[in-house]
Amino acid sequence: MNTEHTPADSVDFDTLKASGLPFIVADRLGVVREINTAFEGVFGWSNDALVGASLSEILPTAHKMSHQLAFSRFELPPTQSAVLGHPLTLATRCADGTEIISEHFIIAEERPEGWCFAATLKPLSASQTVFSS
Questions:
Q1: Superfamily for 8-123?
Q2: Of the ranges 20-24, 31-35, 60-64, 114-118, which one carries the lowest mean pLDDT score?
Q3: What global pTM score does this model have?
């Protein structure tokens, strides 16, 4: 499994997908369009449960609103971005409700169906149970 990220200008969806890391694609509306078996294995989500669902399903509760706001403000085609092409350390919610800290590497690509975002999520921690009040 390749765990190194390369500069964003040399990365496309196929490169991320071939990395062997957990991989996810969402459209510009935040609907999950694709995950790979590594994503299923690490985060516990099945393809049937996540594809067609909102990307917010994998977001920790505390980050859902800010993510939706940022997603809605994102300009396409992307120009300068503090998010795209830069490793980000974020939590991802697993299907069982636990969270895993992972390094996200996100890119945007114009596809026939419109702009989409793809990311690899390299786990940095074991899953942790999160209690919500």
A1: PAS domain (3.30.450.20)
A2: 60-64
A3: 0.78
